[in-house]
Protein 1
Amino acid sequence: MNDVSRYDPLQGAPLPVLGAWGEDEYRSLGLMSGLEVHQQLQTSKKLFCRCPAGRYTTEHHAEILRHMRPTLSEMGDYDGTALMEFKTRKNITYLLNDETVCTYEMDDAPPFEMNPEALDHAVRVSLMLGLQVVDEIHIARKQYLDGSIPTGFQRTAIIGVQGAVPHRGRRIGIRQLSIEEDSCREVSDRGHSRVYRTDRLGMPLIETVTDPDMHTPWDVAAVCDALRRLARASGLVRTGVGAARQDVNVSIRGGSRVEIKGVPSIKRIPRLVHNEALRQRSLLAIRDVLRERRVTADSLQDVSRDVTAIVQGAGGGYLHGAITAGARAAAVPLPGFEGLMSTPTQPHTRFLKEFSDRVRVVACIDTLPNIVCSTSEIPTLSSSEWGRIERACGVGRDTPIMVVWGDEQDVRTAASEILLRAREACVGVPEETRQALPDDTTGFERVLPGPSRMYPDTDLPPVVLGAERLQRLAADLPPPPWERLARLQRDGVGEDLAGRLALHPAWALYAHLQPRLGDGPLSATGLASLLLDRDLPRPSSLAAAGSWWEGALDELRAGRVLPEAIWWSDGEPVAALPPADARAAFDAALAGLPAGLPAESGPRLRTVMGRVMPALRGRVSGRQAAAWAEEATS
Amino acid sequence: MSGNGNEDYKGYRDPALAVLKKFDALVWSDVTIRTDRGEFRGLILPRNEMADPEHVVLKMSTGYNIGLHVGGMQEITVHGRKVANYKIPEKAFPYSEGKPRVKLLGTGGTIASRLDYRTGAVIPAFSPGELYGSVPELADVCNLETEKLYGVFSENMSREQWIGLAEAIGREIAAGVDGIVVGHGTDTMHHTAAILSFMVQGSPVPIVMVGSQRSSDRPSSDAAINLMNAARTAATSDLAEVMVCMFGPTSDQYGLLHQGTRVRKMHSSYRSTFRTLSDIPLGKVDQNGVTPFRNDYRRRRADRDVTVKAVFDDRVSLVYYYPGMKPDIIDSLVDNGYKGIIIAGTGLGHVNRPLYPALERAHRAGVSMFMTVQTLWGFVQMYVYETGREIMELGVVPAANMLPEVAYMKLGWALGQTQDPAEVARIMLTPIARDITEREPYNGYLVYQGGIPEVDQFLSEHWK
């Protein structure tokens, strides 16, 4: 058995890869993970205006420029994330397409009332998840100062709380489900300029939040998969690229909640969770060393120095180039951090990156490398330069010194961020929102927002759902997938088909038609297969296709049509031929065959069938035709 | 509708009030509410008095609020209490030697504000310390002093506030300020800008009105930028005019400085709602300073000479003519003792024939009547059509290109000075601050139409 203590990050040993640890190791780390699953609702219009939902474009007709400022919460506090975003001084440009955006999304008009179709969908999904639907829905504003929503906040409302779903023999607690408007799509983010496309903005989506009930990386992925399928089974959510995204919350014992934001694919969840657990473990090990050395947030003083004059002499390289072009450079010594900067935190990632990330995001110095460290193994400045910087900072050779360079104000921001991050290291794992990087490590995105960022939306009154509406929505609620599976099993449908059909929109049609099969020639499995695998697409919703299917199945039971006729037909199913006429029709089709059939029996049979079946399809059963063909050509 | 008047149960009425009282669950209590559907934990929030009396609002630890119907409540357990402290961080506004002295006079509106959770209203916050707490950049521009004159939504501004405001401005000019900023709700900002243009004449310093279209409790608010632009204009500009300073485009780019008598709110919600009509704005302002668009403005002076004529007779009405209007509208104004009527007529300045006898009667009763145009842009011209001449015969005086609201404010001001119709007409037709202009420049009328290729081309190349 493995032991987590075998991988001591402070010894510089390679970190364990995903798969090296089993359930016991994660349990001994105290891994806890919960999910926030976002799924767009299938509606024709957006949530708070009448723009079309789900229309994506790549062209735009106008642009607007905005900035964000933090505001007070209802409790009288500023939110930490808001203050961090304000420090970034971003110019935010929105690209507007006249078909997908109106003055509401531009934050130049107040909201219209909440889209009732979207609200109904959200209540239905809440009921499926066994949530307590709230009596009065209060619309809140959740601050997002990154600019991803032009108002600076997302309108969101709790629909249900405290539910649970069965999952592999246990219950996964569902903390809450909220309805909210989707954000912009980011086009670019360079320096102090961020660009967003606004077509997705305002589309209704639901966010399902689980309890932190998952304790291994693969369990997180499995539960995520189950939740997404559950919502898809309702037929009320959108599918396809970008229609569902999840945030994965991860912590280990002694660590903090870190939110890995916008994970696009479930497949990546296990490695991301594993790597984040490793990162927290390394940060805690570093924290312990700092504690032993009696380094605290208070003992770290702001002693950054402007070292532009010193690094100017550097021979060549990016730093020299930048300084020559007018950049300033600052040095931030971190006494007490001796020997810690190279500690691995994630695969191919060291503690130093925690600092580099902050400088990139908060100070917007995003040309990498954006930071050099005196104790780094990679050559950066010359040893004489480092010597002069050490003397300027008044520290010895072993003390790590960070040097950052860039625009004067950015460098000031960067220096104070480095100090801030160092202070956080003394406390442990900072609460952060992190982005999933392509190699399944994570990078800093922003400080984790707290409840201070929530405040009531004064533009819209609360919505009272009312018993009548709730009853109506509960009445036509589709059964959850686990109940569907149980029924399909009772009906004798094979495992693979049942698994697919339980989550397919055609489920409703199956549930409606299956009782009509009686002891006719079509089995429940046959019906399931027809609905899922037919060549010809037919509207699979009950409303759109119900009567066609009803008629077709009645004909089938009466022996007037063959199952194949239903399989192949895209209109009125052709009638089956009586046995005598069938043979005559086969012979007629065969008579038209050209000479020179393949000599081998297999290919010969296939050629014959290929020739005769177009004329016979649906009228003569394939099996019967094959028997005659074999007989006629052998 | 009023609440229970009890701060402990702010906004709640029976039956919710009775349930809260039964369990001693005051607002801001941290509670667990046991209902027939499960338990809910959170902080009891005050309730909006306009909302129904059957729900209790709970703030959950996630920051979300939910409403629970009292019908299913079985028990409320109180764990503690946490009263919210709505305070904008107050920091002493720093004084810098040599920076211009700017006075901010508050009338209401949402330049700096906090939320009131009983009504959901936005309450203005105004002390220099509060303003510095939310817009610290102001200290780079000026030494700011503030005085809250009124705390009203702009639709509630009227005679008393206009007079009080004009007098306060006079006092501040005498006291030596380098510029004045007036914080005002946007709905009637152009009315107040007009009356100040008449009541305060020949100011030696800029008088800048400012507000916000997105309240400052929102991260995307235009309030901070508007306030900085207004303060910068008041502190540094050479424009000794009464102006409105609000967003030019909807982008965070620059503010426009509109002449107080030529400006109008033109959109119910856009940031760039204020436009100068039948003329061009005085200039623009951004973080780099003020750029005048024209040269014929009144210059800043060092002296303290100013004429304050703070009078207003509110027996004046603004009648927006519509086809089919009946004469009783005019008759009832006369019967109720109104002394002046501004008509916003159709086209070049017309009303229908059935009104004629009523107008004639009003004229005989000594009511001063002036014609403006509901097209907003352009001049009244009552000679072109026979009907125009007939209406003039009845005693209705064409008011050139005065905007209807501006004419309304000016007529109240004129009647505050004299009841003599001839003198009133003389005052009305004497231009004071570009309220009437001699000529309308061709670029004074710009309502471009979307969809036209060259207009859309322009929109695609410039920030809106």
Protein 2
Amino acid sequence: MPVAGSSKVQILHMYKEFIRNSNKIQNYNFREYFLRRARESFRANKNVKSPEKISELISEAEKDLGVLKRQSVISNMYTFDKLVVEPLKKR
Amino acid sequence: MFRSVFRAAPALTRVSGMRSGFVKPTFSVASRFYASSTLSKDEITTRIADVIKSFDKTAAAASITGETQFSKDLGLDSLDTVELLVSIEEEFDIEFPDKVADELKSVGETVDYISNNPEAN
């Protein structure tokens, strides 16, 4: 594993926050966009080894997470019609 | 002046008597309200299996038992495992605390945690 112990756990927790907050977004297109972006960007950087780069990426992700949290809260203040591609009821 | 109070009193008891008579049958039928998970382990396992199957990365999701390990048997990396656990959380309407989630490595461990969690449904 390229990332050392504590920061690996920290990054995984951050990834979880990204997924959780993305799932809360009401609008299908934005929700899928944030999920896709979280998955892609975490995976794109999974082989980064230099500690400086890692801490730089972490602080960048923290900023993005702030944006995402704000947007997911805002999206819950409005109602969105479901798109035809969305299942009406989960399960 | 007092007479109106006396007159009101029997009427009141009558109403309350009627109400308790009305409530009684529902009270005896009412189920317990204290927390207790009603999910059986088999049910939890099937539902987790369904979540894993709908999680498109896992080709080897055909046979899922308690011993199935997320990383070894399902070929998930750490990011996938986190994502799968979030889907399982949503399925059961609970949130794994970070400490618990870090320790969950297999389907069996997850089933145990959910069956001991009274809020799961």
Protein 3
Amino acid sequence: MKKLQKFALSAVFGVFIGTMAIPATPVVAETPADMLVIANRIDDITTLDPAESFEFAGSDVIRNVYGRLVNFDPLNLDKGYEADLAESWTVSEDGRTITFNIREGVNFHSGNPVTAEDVEFSLRRVVTLAKTPSFILTQFGFTPENITETIVADGNTLKITTDKKYATSFVLNCLTATVGAIVDKKLVMENEKDGDLGNEWLKTNSAGSGAYKVVSWKPSESVTLQSNEDFYLGAPAMKRVIVRHIQESATQRLLLEKGDIDVARNLNPEDVAGVTGKEGISIDSELRGRLMYISLNQNHPELSKPKVVEAIKYLIDYKGMQDSFLNGQYRIHQSFLPKTYLGAIDDQPYTLDVEKAKALLKEAGVENLEVEAGVREAQERVEIAQSLQNTFAQAGIKLNITIGTGKQTLTRYRARDLDVYVGAWGPDYPDPQTNAGTFAYNPDNSEEAKATGLLAWRNAWDPGDLTAKTEAAVIEGDRDVRKKMYEDIQREFQARAPFAIMFQKDEQTGRRSNVKNLNLGGAITAVAYWPVTK
Amino acid sequence: MTVATDPERGRRKSPLSKALLPVLRTVGTIVATMIGLLFVTFIIGRVMPIDPVISVVGERASKEAYEAAYRAMGLDQPVIVQFFYYIGDILQGDFGQSLLNARPVAEDIRRVFPATLELATLGTFIGVLIGVPLGVLAAVRRGSWIDQIARFVALIGYSMPIFWLGLVGLLIFYGILGWVGGPGRVGIFYVDIVPSVTGMILVDSLLDGNWTVLKDAMSHIILPASLLGYYSLAYISRMTRSFMLEQLSSEYVITARVKGLPEWTVIWRHAFRNIKVQLITVIALSYAGLLEGSVLTEIIFAWPGIGSYITTALLSADMNAVLGGTVVVGLVFVCLNVFSDLMYKFFDPRAR
């Protein structure tokens, strides 16, 4: 099917190029001034319950419907989290308890006021329901048994107590995630069925206090949002937001050119090139959280030599790939925190340098190296592997590519069975720990530890003092000091880890030029519609 | 042959059961086919290496929650018992919950099937309306320029990928000329305006008497429907032509011509009447094919029909949705087959 689509797409593109020659000026329609119409692939939405949702399109909806204790300003993501439904907060001496003062005068869409009790209910609910994304909260030691003591509302304040000291910024960053959404306790409990805490009902309904309320969600068809005129930051300019599921890039492009939609979120590079420079259409580029990397198994006698590790980092044609088949989709990025994350750095010490690599390999005394790379059957990864095969060969390393399904490849990777892995990694929550805790952390590298969740373990790599440094960064209370710590960890990682981080995902969006202030959420959060104007 | 030894005589039934018997036989056929279909889908659902429990409770559920759900789903029962549960559920119109969007599959199908039904019906209508006369004409004027054109049109219809035609159609008629509405069933302003009765927007807007919505829906459906119509036209016209050629060379037609009957009467009253039965099978099959949903057309025209529904479900291993969709499509095939059988009997006295 994927192949068929690929083939179809390329054929379609050819046709487009051909037919574009027909001289014509399409009549441009326009969407109403207070309505935002977006084309996007939304067939990944499985639920609109914030305690359960863990997909991109779902987070897009939830970010606009629910308030959180702390949140990112869509117009300034780099500033980090800010007060949202919590007006302010204090941290106890021992760093384990955070007390939030809940903002007064904010109402849910139902008219019920937002109280500390709602916050208590929402966070406890995530822990009790224990759905997939609940680990973002439970990693702080909350369990269904202890929540009555660890998450407690008292008058206008809410106290959360973690099992040990963590960096405040770590806890707060996690509260900006989708699971941190505050739901309307009264309304949700009115719709509870068999003790499900309203899970069934919330899957398709909304009970938030955010800028928009859900009018309807038709799976794989559309999501319609209506503005909340009482939104505490002011009524949004866009009264209605309609997200239509349009699978095809070419179809999205046609609709955008005609002005029947305001934003096209899945234009492929060919269609982006096609609309670039057209009157009334602008292209935005926004970095997202996904990284592309290769890793070297340290159980391999040759690949574990530091000089070989270094040599391989010089045998990657970063720029060549970025400017050819990854053009417009990925940008060079060589550290494990995606840009817009706290502590992200922009250092790019490596470029393709075959001579230097050859010298390093010679120093290491390595000759005629032959290794196997496991690659998932995804177009871009296979292309990356082929590029690597080519550049490795220039230094005398033979790279054998084994293409498998996601499951096959991942199973072997988790069993430390691959020499080289060509992989992608997406952060789980908006805090640097999400990546630091897997790339640079591995307390027990033994075979028996079976820490298959850690990327460092999968490559049989003992990060040495980086493990302790990562642990220290997790509990550092000062946000700026913590930021510095991650910068240091990444530089050390960059120099000696058997990982070559290569690219960060770049998302290109076509929009009608009159649409202003649309932010997709960068690498750390989701789209925000409330600042949008036309 | 004496009356006493007539074997039929002893079995003669009352007129009521005589009328009832064929009906019962038809119902029997449907039931048997459906049980077969259900059995196959059930087996497919059981052999797929997907854990339905995990899909419901999530990957991080506790062992207790997992086992409770396992029992609640009846998976601890013997397979044969599970099969009867499955049939029981389906008889009540319950295909289970979609793993992808947590809604009842039956509800989803009620939403997507009318979209396909609308499109396929209009498409078949166009295909028959143009395809049949074209085929007849091509047969009558065999070898003439009109026959060549008909052949060419059919060839394009057969061989051009439908997504290509769809995109070029969109580009020209929507993008450049602006004659038709764009992708989607109606313009965004008309979404959810008429109450959903049948789920088919053309019918619903008619029922509601809302001409604006009807007009808009028409402008959106006309292009994909013409496309599907063209596709079935290609098939129907070729089949019509070959059926007609066979009839036109038979003796009764020569006789009719010798008798001096007008050509019109010879073609339509004599020859065409005899191909009706065959044509019905062809049309019914082509209609059923369109009712399966044309995935590519649905994707390009952002048409939320059953084809893309099943495909999406398949790609995300949403087995309840796939099986539900398969059962519905199977039912459509069975019903159309029965329908064309009944039509046989109506048009062809020998089949009675």
